[in-house]
Amino acid sequence: MTIEAREAPLPGLGDAEIVFDVQAFSAYYGAFRALKEITFQIREHQITAIIGPSGCGKSTLLRGFNRMNDLVQSAHSEGHILYHGVDLYAPQVDPVEVRRRIGMVFQKPNPFPKSIYDNVAFGPRVAGYKGDMDERVEQSLRRAAIWDEVKDKLTTPGTALSGGQQQRLCIARAIAVEPDVILMDEPCSALDPVATLRIEELMHELKQNYTIVIVTHNMQQAARASDVTAFLTMGDDRAGYLVEMDTTDKIFTRPEHRLTEDYITGRFG
């Protein structure tokens, strides 16, 4: 059977090109179903926030976009995630190439135990980049809004930076392989409010060149930083499912579903 991307935009979400078309996607860890038939679309040059209570499968869904769940032995999935019309889970698709095109920034800053320069250069080197590495490193650090802070100490270990700087270094590292999408899993949860605001400002700058998907528990962050919000919750079987997805303004001011309203106002979750 041929899988085709749907062209009709979801209400209120605009008509930008579809980057991810998620079709009845379910994820399992062994016999446990973590996600139940998720269906939605993510469009280019938008920041999409995925919110919902702990355990509803937000991070599992995020990792589904770049097949990080493949690294969990018991994990398997059903349904489809199309990336620019290509089924990411088709047998001929190389997960390593998927992860080059779809970068990821994790909850806790995780710079390599290498110099700042080598942290950024690592990915291009592995990918066989033959161009000007100094230029690639500088460009990546500039895009991550940290160049001015580190340009005179590129040989310093990345682990010597502050938490917020480490996270921006990790973003630079993700950018260095020239991805199309940047996934962020709770990227500010370990940061102070000042560093958090800097990362949010950076996301707004980056969306000019990248599509960004962020998982966050922070309702204020989702409201401030994203263009579109998807709300997940879970049923009695603990499987996460999509309640609704719309523009962030509408989700936070005029949600369609009572479950969404209860969650964002703190009445449950």
**Proportion of residues in helical segments:** 25-40%
Spans with pLDDT under 50 lasting ≥5 residues? Answer: 1-9
Biggest beta-sheet profile: 6 strands, mixed
CATH class category: Alpha Beta
Under CATH, the homologous superfamily reads P-loop containing nucleotide triphosphate hydrolases
The helix/strand class is alpha/beta
Number of helical elements = 10
Order of helices and strands: EEEHEEHEHHHHEHEHEEHH
- Assess the beta-strand content as a share of residues: 25-35%
Distance between the termini: 39 Å
Write down the CATH topology.
Rossmann fold
Overall 3D form: globular
CATH architecture: 3-Layer(aba) Sandwich
Number of strands: 10
Strand order of the largest sheet: 6-7-8-3-9-10
> What is the number of independent domains?
1
Top keywords for this entry?
26% strand; 269 residues; six-stranded mixed β-sheet; alpha/beta; globular; disordered N terminus
Descriptive report:
- With 269 residues, this protein is of the alpha/beta class.
- The protein has one domain (18-264): 3-Layer(aba) Sandwich (Rossmann fold), CATH 3.40.50.
- The chain has helices at residues 58-64, 95-101, 116-126, 133-143, 147-150, 163-175, 193-206, 219-225, 248-253, 258-264; strands at 18-29, 32-43, 47-51, 75-83, 86-87, 102-105, 181-185, 211-215, 228-234, 240-247.
- Strands 6-7-8-3-9-10 form a six-stranded mixed β-sheet, sandwiched between helices.
- A hairpin with a 2-residue loop joins β4 (75-83) and β5.
- Residues 1-9 have low confidence and may be disordered.
